[in-house]
Design goal:
Blueprint lengths: L1 E6 L6 H14 L4 E5 L4 E6 L3 H10 L8
Antiparallel strand pairs: 1-3, 2-3
Helix pairs in contact: 1-2
Amino acid sequence: MSTIELTLPNMTCGHCVRTVTAAVQRVDAQAKLDVDLPQHKVHIESAQEAEMFRKALAEEGYPAATA
């Protein structure tokens, strides 16, 4: 299990959080998720690869910012 931190600039409201949460859970239903809406960050604890979450989130309109 690893912790993945992603910055999602397009995540700006409660509806966004619900969509992001649903996308994460589609990749890994057991993932633990912590959302920091003001900072546009999501922390995911999962055994899945980070790239799987990046792809699922981008498909929903929430591409992760690159550092």
